[in-house]
UniProtKB/TrEMBL annotation:
The lineage of its organism: Bacteria, Bacillati, Actinomycetota, Actinomycetes, Mycobacteriales. GO terms for molecular function: alpha,alpha-trehalose-phosphate synthase (UDP-forming) activity; trehalose-phosphatase activity. This is alpha,alpha-trehalose-phosphate synthase (ADP-forming). GO terms for biological process: trehalose biosynthetic process. Belongs to the glycosyltransferase 20 family. InterPro entries: Glyco_trans_20 (IPR001830). Its EC number is 2.4.1.347. It catalyses: TDP-alpha-D-glucose + D-glucose 6-phosphate = 5-methyl-UDP + alpha,alpha-trehalose 6-phosphate + H(+); CDP-alpha-D-glucose + D-glucose 6-phosphate = alpha,alpha-trehalose 6-phosphate + CDP + H(+); GDP-alpha-D-glucose + D-glucose 6-phosphate = alpha,alpha-trehalose 6-phosphate + GDP + H(+); ADP-alpha-D-glucose + D-glucose 6-phosphate = alpha,alpha-trehalose 6-phosphate + ADP + H(+). GO terms for cellular component: cytosol.
Amino acid sequence: MSGDNDFVVVANRLPVDLTRNADGSESWTPSPGGLVAALTPVLSANEGCWVGWPGTPDASPEPFHTEDGVLLHPVSLTEADYRDFYEGFSNATLWPLYHDLIVSPVYDRSWWESYRDVNHRFALEVDKVAAEGATVWVQDYQLQLVPGILRQIRPDLTIGFFLHIPFPGPDLFRQLPWREEIVRGLLGADLLGFHLESNAANFLDLLRHVSIPVEGTARTREVQAFATGGDGRRVGVAAYPISIDPSSLGHSDEAAVAQRRGELGDPATVLLGVDRLDYTKGILQRLTAFEELLESGALDAQDVAFVQVATPSRERLEEYRRARSEVEEAVGRINGRFGAIGRPVVHYLHQALPKRELRHYYSAADVMVVTPFKDGMNLVAKEYVACHPDGSGSLVLSEFAGAAQELTQANLCNPFDSESVKAAILQAIQGLAAHPDVMAQRMSVMYEQVTTHDVDAWANAFLSSLRDARR
Ligand code: ADQ
């Protein structure tokens, strides 16, 4: 079967969420992510279609066109699919395995069967909408079998795949009982994209380990490596570091910044953390480092405020519930020890903020603290930098975030070592006071990097390699 769309994006989620209202009616809320912003122009220029889950179990809405002329084609997931495919195999097996076992992955055969089944259904939906010879771009770890299934049923398609999270070293990946199926699934693509050269190199090492022929070393898009798919096809492998759409952040002004700082009690220094509440992000460890700085007297609670915004995430999973309760316990303890009535030292929000509001906090923060144990890229670090065109502010960044490869002028730290996190926070605060010109120069270098390597550049680079891959 084939449809009439020349360009199809397939992702676990559609770029809009279906919400069921209290009166039983349904409405769509856009999710304004960078990926959506980057892909919408390509999709609307190419009679494009986005295939994905509408965000509510057991919902089967009809396909519809957005104002930009993009066809949204929903894939229905049952409550059981959500539990086994999404929460189970995607987020309790693959997510911890690909993030270097920060918690232990659970290997459960019934979750794997659900993953395989849901990947099949996604591929069949793509088959319905993709025109003869169309380009299909598959996104992320939830859909790693889709390229292989599509290759079988639709050899006419050009298929790209991009992994948004790290790819682990071969010794870790080999733990996965279904490792061969996943590799075969990925090799159905014409081009496999990773954030970093090291992720691509891990994938190529794995292939060598299982005697799949590989030519070259994956580098940037100019220097791809090639693996050999099951049918002898060449599969390009390269790194395409994702970025942000700086214009989507809007503008902040002095009044908005002054208002946010005033609400915090006008401290000398505002520190900020913004994350999905995920155990990979190192939120507890950064709060503990902050607490130790207060305890030692290196920081004075009168002079500082720490704002931590944490978006609720995957809340039915045990490890996420534990991460949340540990973070909330630490916030309470730190405020109990160092706050005063009406003057907490940590301001904690467990909610998603509108981008406009987030922008004001990014602009108001003197020091952004980004301390994941492992992160594919980390867009928050790039968003903060993009909100400081005048060179103000300072970034504390984990060496284990993909973004550290590009944002080399940040105060880099090792999140596994609390001394290193503390030293980076102090360096940032003291640097702003003692060497403002040097700090401004460093922020400006990073601003230039983020604004010249934006999400459009990322999408164009990947799609141009994908066109070359099928020539
Ligand atoms: P995430 O793990 O979700 O992404 P990140 O890259 O930081 O992490 O992106 C989070 C996005 O959500 C940012 O755009 C941020 O502004 C927004 N966000 C976070 N907390 C928010 C809040 N409280 N309110 C509103 N918005 C909030 C995965 C990978 C990353 C990779 C991206 C893109 O884990 O490593 O960078 O995909 O490939």
